[in-house]
From TrEMBL:
InterPro entries xref list: FAH, Fumarylacetoacetase-like_C, Fumarylacetoacetase_C_sf
Protein name (record): Fumarylacetoacetate hydrolase family protein
Pfam short name (any one): FAA_hydrolase
All copies of domain Fumarylacetoacetase-like C-terminal, residue ranges: 204-345
Keywords of the record: Hydrolase, Metal-binding
Homology family: Belongs to the FAH family.
Top-level taxon in the UniProt lineage: Bacteria
PANTHER family, alphabetized: 2-DEHYDRO-3-DEOXY-D-ARABINONATE DEHYDRATASE (PTHR42796:SF7), FUMARYLACETOACETATE HYDROLASE DOMAIN-CONTAINING PROTEIN 2A-RELATED (PTHR42796)
Amino acid sequence: MATNILEGLPSDYASGQFLGRAETPAGPSILAIRKGTIYDITEVAASMSGAIERRHFDGGIKLGPVENGLPEGWRLLAPIDLQCIKAAGVTFALSAIERVIEERARGDAASAAVIRAQLEDKVGSGIRSVVPGSEEAMQLKAALIDQGMWSQYLEVAIGPDAEIFSKSPVLSSVGHGAEIGVRSDSNWNNPEPEVVLVCDSAGEIIGATLGNDVNLRDFEGRSALLLSKAKDNTASCSIGPFIRIFDESFALDDVRAASVDLTIEGPEGYRLEGTNDMSQISRDPTDLVDQCLSEHHYPDGFVLFCGTLFAPTQDRDEPGAGFTHKVGDVVTISSERIGTLRNTVTLSSRATPWRMGVAAFATNLAERGLIDRI
C-alpha cells in the first residue's frame, strides 16, 4: 500500500516547494515536491545536507502527484540527515516560568501548582514585558534577585545569551508516522511543539519544518545538568514531515507569524489541545540562529528548534499532578503553512533501535554509487 503523504502537507502545498527523505528498499532517498508532484532527486543530491548546501532542488525522477502517495515499500524519514540538530530553550515567557517551576519543584509534579501561582504573581507580567538583554531586563533581573526569585532559567529568558543546546545526534531524529520515545524511568514529561529552522553551513535560513522536542520535566527539574538526559534519548526527537523552502509563497515572516497547534489523544480517551504562537517569542528567529552559529562552524549545516510557548498544566490522572505522557498517546503537531507531524508515544527502551549512523549512511551511498553526490 502506498504511503499517504498528503496528510502531512499544508493545504497550499501546490504553490510551495518542499524537501523530504524516504526510506526505500535501496536506502534513504531525497524527495522534492514541486507544484504538487513528487520527485526523487537522489541521483543529483544524495544527502539532504548537500541538496540544501548546493541548492539542488530541481530535476530528479518523477514519482507522481502527491495524491498518489509514495511508492509501495517507501516510508517517510525525518527530512534531515547530516545536519547538526540544535535547539533553543526558554524562548517564551511562559516556558521560562515553567522551567523555574520545574527547578523549584525539584521535578515533583505535585508541588508545581502552588509554585506556579506564586511565580505568576511575582514574575509573570514583568517577564512578558521586556526584551531579552535590554536595560529593562537587567532592572527586572536586579529586582528578582532582591526578592530571592532569580533562576538560571530566567537568566536565559531575559539575559543577553539564549540557551542553545544539542538536541540529538546526527541522523538520529525520527519522522512523520514514527514512534517517539520517553524514558521508562520518567514520570513527568511532555511534548514540545516547535518550528524548526533549516540552515546551510553559513547560517542562512533556507526553510522551516516542524519538530517535537520531547522533554522529561522531572529529570531537568532535578538539575539543569541533567538536560542531556532529559532531552537526548532514543526516538526523543521528531522532525518533519517536510522542509518548506523559502520562496515567493513562504518566507521568514510566515514563520514569525505561525501558530503551531498541538493535540494529544490518549489511549484512555484523554485529549489535550494547545498552541505555540510564534508571534509571542521573546527572541527573533534570526537572533536565535546567530547565537547558534556564534563562533561555531557547521560544515553540513544545522537545524534549530525555536522553543515553545506550550506548557501542559492540565491534570491528566490526579488533581494537581499535571500532565505526563502515556504509552500509546498520539501527538499531532500542525501549522497551516508548514504541515502536520504525527507520532505515537512509546518508551525509548522499546522504540525501534537507531542503526543508520554516519558510517552506515556513507556505506549505503557508496554501494549505490552515490557517494560522490553526498
